[in-house]
Amino acid sequence: MTLFAENQQEGSGYSDETARSVRKYQGSHFWTSLFQVVSTISLLLLCYVLIYAGLMRGWWWSLVLTPLAAGLSIRTFVLQHDCGHGSLFRKRWANDGIGWLCSLLTLTPYDHWKKHHGLHHGSWNNMDTRGRLSDLYSDCITVAEYRKMTRFKRFLYRMSKNPVLTVFLMPPVIFFVVYRFAFDTPRHWIRERAGVYATNLCLVAMFGGLSWLVGWKLVLLVSFLVIYPAAVTGVWLFLVQHKFEGVHWAEHPEWNSYDAAVTGCSFLRFSRVMRWFTGDIGTHHIHHMAPGIPNYRLLACHDAHPVFQDVKILNWRDGVREARTNVLWDEDMQTMVDLRSVT
User: What's the farthest any 2 CA atoms get from each other in the chain?
Assistant: First the structure.
């Protein structure tokens, strides 16, 4: 995916000056990208080796490494995500190869997720393209649609937006179960459907071998302690990057990519450590504006032009609050509202 300046719509605030500023950060640096991949995956595999080696000797304290492994899993997912956008390396085969490797550590089928995520980038915060299962965490309904529901359907909708379910219970189901199937995928997506089951076969071989070596109980324990917090954090990130106070939804033809990027994506301002583990994906407005920018150039692009300074800025405390509010779009007020404010 490249900068969308060539396809900008009339009426968008995207100027030629902004386009030139953003375009400077397009493209990756091979050695920087390679170092990111080698260092991240090596550290993650080392954590797994030390954890399993310790547990085989009865050293339960080795589980203290699972939070580090979870953080590295998040970073691995961001690298896979960059590969899916073709931004980590200049060659497609390199992006696809590294993306596939990462997918075995993130439990996320590369081609399938890449395709669905591409659709998300082409229509996020567009009122006319809602309803895809893969956009579960960035989608919403309107206040009018909510009021037309029966009492029982309202109850189910409120339950589905409860952060206990969406942030803490659903993520492990998504990564351990849902991603094992070609959900919400047309039959003509042959490569993507095949990729899901090819990934499953590799995971069966990988986890089967580990189970034979250390026992299935330890494999389940370690996998859960690493993947669960990584999945929860990843889903939370995706949620608050697209649903927050001040986010704007538009209908076609008023919708355009630039306005959707600066009014439909937040900027999560994290500490340097958190930025490293999340691969600066919190600079989400820049990522949506130009998916071809690799993770390590997103923040520099944000700082390079004053037009980006007016985007919604959140810290992690704001993100916790936003995860349980702003779930309905009020078309009359042109703002997101809480369920408790709607009668």
Answer: 65
pLDDT of 23 reads 87
* Rounded-to-integer distance, Cα 291 and Cα 26, Å: 9
Of the candidates 115, 132, 261, which has an alpha carbon nearest to the alpha carbon of residue 184? 132
d(CA 261, CA 323): 19
Could you report the per-residue pLDDT of 309-320, keeping only the tens digit for each? 889 999 999 999
Tokens, residue 146: 């909510």
Q: What residue type is 40 in one-letter code?
A: T
Instruction: Outline where 4-29 has alpha helix (H).
Output: 16-23
Tokens 């580990």: give the residue. 210
Q: Residue with structure tokens 């849902």?
A: 178
- CA dist 106 and 181 (Å) reads 15
The SS3 of residue 243 is coil
Instruction: Sort strands 313-314 and 267-268 into parallel, antiparallel or unpaired.
Output: parallel
Tally of CB atoms within 10 A around 103: 27
Query: Cα-flanking dihedrals φ and ψ of residue 314, to 5°?
Result: -125, 145
pTM for the whole structure: 0.94
Query: For 43-74, how does the pLDDT look when each residue is reduced to its tens digit (9 = 90+)?
Result: 999 999 999 999 999 999 999 999 999 999 99
Whole-angstrom CA distances from 252 to 5, 217, 285, 291 are 18, 51, 20, 21
Instruction: Please give the Cα distance from 25 to 4 (Å, whole number).
Output: 14
- State residue 250 phi and psi, 5-degree precision: -140, 160
User: Are 214 and 58 spatial neighbours (Cβ–Cβ below 8 Å)?
Assistant: no
Structure tokens at 283: 């600079």
